[in-house]
Amino acid sequence: MEREVFVCHSSKDAAVAVRLCERLESCGIGCWIAPRDVLAGVSYPRQIVEAIQGCRVLLLVYSAAADRSPHVQRELETALQENVSILPFRLDAHDLSEDMRYFLGAQHWVHATSPDPAPGEQRLAEQVGALLNRIKVPRSGEGKVPASVASPGTGARPPANAPGNAPANTAASSRVARRVEALYQEAEACESSGDFAGAAAAYERILALAPEDPDAPRLLALARLELSGAPSAAASSGAAAANDAGAPSPRPALRATPQPPPQREVSPAPRPPPSPKASSAMVAPAPLGEVGAGSRLDDLLGAARDGQTVRLVAGVHRLDRPIVLDKTLTLEGAGRDTTSVVCAGEGHVVRFKGAGRLILRDLTLEHAGNADADVLRVASGAVLAQRCAFRGAVEAAADGDEGSRGGDGIWASSDAVCEFVECVIAGNQGSGLFADGNARVTFRDGVVSDNGGGGIHLTGRVQAVISGNGCRDNGGSGIQFRGDSGGSAQGNTCERNGKSGMYVDDRAAPSLRENVCTGNQDSGIAWFGDSRGTCESNRCDDNRSNGIYVGERAAPAVLKNVCAENDKDGISYRNESGGQCTGNRCRKNGEDGIYVASTATVRLQGNVCVGNAGANIRDPR
Asked: CA-to-CA distance for 565 and 568, rounded, in angstroms?
């Protein structure tokens, strides 16, 4: 289904937005909505812009929360720049802000009804159908918007080449063609480097922009086959069949590549350098079939051919020794709670290196001994883990040997590329996830809990996307950015951690947005060192220290956060800290709403502080 409608909404209205999306799609109108249609491993802002460019209508789910959302405003601005029609659906009677008046002053509105929203939503579907029929430029063979949602008397616009028709919007068509060609070039570059996830994402965006493209479906299928570890011979035969049926000649084939202020936290000792990369070429072996719980799994994995799939039946599979994998391999279980791979050896349970890809699905990796060990070490290459758990890592006693510290559920280093989806990292003595070097990490929709050294620790030059996770009850901070790391942490809940909910130090410059930090033993969010970045639309409440703490020479942009009922200040600026503090709300905190030291250089603007035990804003400068 072609995606013609971009659903723009605040995360607080997600339930309504999803319901509207489902109603439209039941009528045959394709929609793009986050987070459902967001692809992992691809720039989130870029996906938003491309999705808006590929749609004809932006449906704004308007509410007080949407009016305050900077993301909603940026999406509206992009839609105006791209000449995408905007249709607002009003949920409440909230007065438009000046910014929203600029975007929506001349728009026709559809209103929800109360208490029964169905009539308003049906009226919205009809309006969307009518609007699409007015602006739609059909492609060859394309029909009209379904009559079930079109307004009475409104028909589809006839084909562009019908007699008497005005010429099609050639400027828009040319722009789409240029974008499609650029995406093909991006996909081929990804294939050349072995990034088949990136290639698949590019082909999916091509299909969203040009559903009639003859090459993209087949190339997308090939990329997905490479990702799944399926035999490439099957992909080749599928391509041959397509050519026999008269399909266009394929593009180049996919190529496989071988107060007192909060206490500063002490970074764990640096990890040892990874082993050099080993080359690995994909072949097309048959799957091993199901492996019973009594099999010698370490021997089977060691003997598995490059590209093979190993399927484990439910049960406990024991490794006699830690295993090192340097080939492309898929390891699948029968479920995270029913299939486990257990090892008591020293160093690790599984270590992956080389230039290949390791795929883990529906299983638990667990260390069960007293020897110091991580659970999963990723020295290089790419790892994708879905619905997996990582438990039981043991941290060595302090003996002066920094290189054998161990203790992390997952350790990723060097140039490793890792994606973890719906995974659980729990019960490890060190950090849940520790990443350094130039690693790229995506961790989303998971749980990181009860780890002794902290939840997620990012350092070096790591770039990370951390979204939609629960980071709770860890001994250190829930999420840490240190060194020169960056990326984003969005929509996470960091609660009851032994230090701060989120912690930023050194020269790190992350974007922290729409997170909830509550009940932590130190501050909700703490910034130290020379860190920069953005701290926007977070909620920090009931923390034992400050809601947000900015110390030393840190200078983040602190925007539109809510800091309530923390034991100390709502927002506290100490030392020579600076940056921008705008549009925040601080209420009922145990000391000041906002405290600014005389040496700080922060700029305050438009903050609302009420009901705090000390001064609402204490600024002696």
From this structure: 8
